[in-house]
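dumping this here before i forget
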Amino acid sequence: MGAKLRLVTVRGRALRCVVCGHREFSSREVKLNSTGAEFLGLGWANRSALAVICGSCGYVHEFAGPRPDLWRPEQGYPAEVEVD
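structure:
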């Protein structure tokens, strides 16, 4: 795959994959397609979201609102982040 894995925080909390509990993710921008826009050939105008993809199982977590923060694993989470 070759994508850089990152730690992810959402609203000050460390993210764990909802499927396997892994803490490292790759990320990419994704389109939130709607049937109407696609039908009219306007898929390019759909909203975007940030997807973080679990580095272990591949489950895709999508964030359409406020963006999660991405951190380098070797540096760890900032001190104020809630890690369970």
